[in-house]
Amino acid sequence: MPDMCPRCGLPKELCVCDILDREATKRIKVYKAKAKFRKYVTIVEGLTGDELERTAKQLKTKLACGGTYKKGVIELQGDHIDSVKSELLILGFPESSIDVI
Ligand SMILES: [Zn+2]
């Protein structure tokens, strides 16, 4: 007897409820902002709590850059606008939840 999802009634391996939840509850906004001295920072907005902290650490490691996070906003040193989205996809965020502006 396979595990069934109590919400959609499908076997767990076919169930996409978790993914749908993520898409419904979360929009991640990625954009570039000007920092001091003609430098840029890349902003990732929309994550909270543990996920914010974990994602900030993972992005800093992956992109080999400095960065900070607070109140739902990750600020990465430098212009990483092209790579942040693919890193977020690798980390498991659905493509439809990520807006690169
Ligand atoms: Zn389900």
Q: Which class best fits the helix and strand makeup?
A: alpha+beta
Number of helices: 3
Number of strands: 5
Overall pLDDT, averaged?
Answer: 90
CATH superfamily: SUI1-like domain
Radius of gyration: 16 Å
Q: Which spans of ≥5 residues are poorly predicted at pLDDT below 50?
A: none
What fraction of the residues are assigned to beta strands by DSSP?
Answer: 15-25%
What CATH calls the topology is: Translation Initiation Factor Eif1
Major sheet: 5 strands, mixed
Q: Which bin fits the share of residues in helices?
A: 25-40%
Number of domains: 1
Give the terminus-to-terminus CA distance: 46 Å
Strand adjacency order, main sheet: 3-4-2-1-5
CATH architecture designation: 2-Layer Sandwich
- List cofactors, ions and other ligands: zinc ion
Give the overall form.
Answer: elongated
**N-to-C order of helices and strands:** HEEHEEHE
CATH class: Alpha Beta
Tell me what you see in this structure.
The chain has 101 residues and is α+β, with helices and mostly antiparallel strands. The chain has one domain: SUI1-like domain (Translation Initiation Factor Eif1, 2-Layer Sandwich), CATH 3.30.780.10. 34% of the residues lie in helices and 25% in strands. It contains 3 helices and 5 strands. A 5-stranded mixed β-sheet has the order 3-4-2-1-5, with helices on one face. A hairpin with a 2-residue loop joins strand 3 and strand 4. Helix 2 crosses helix 3. The longest helix is centred in the middle third of the chain and has 15 residues. It is elongated, with a radius of gyration of 16 Å. The model has no long low-confidence stretch (mean pLDDT 90). Bound molecules: zinc ion.
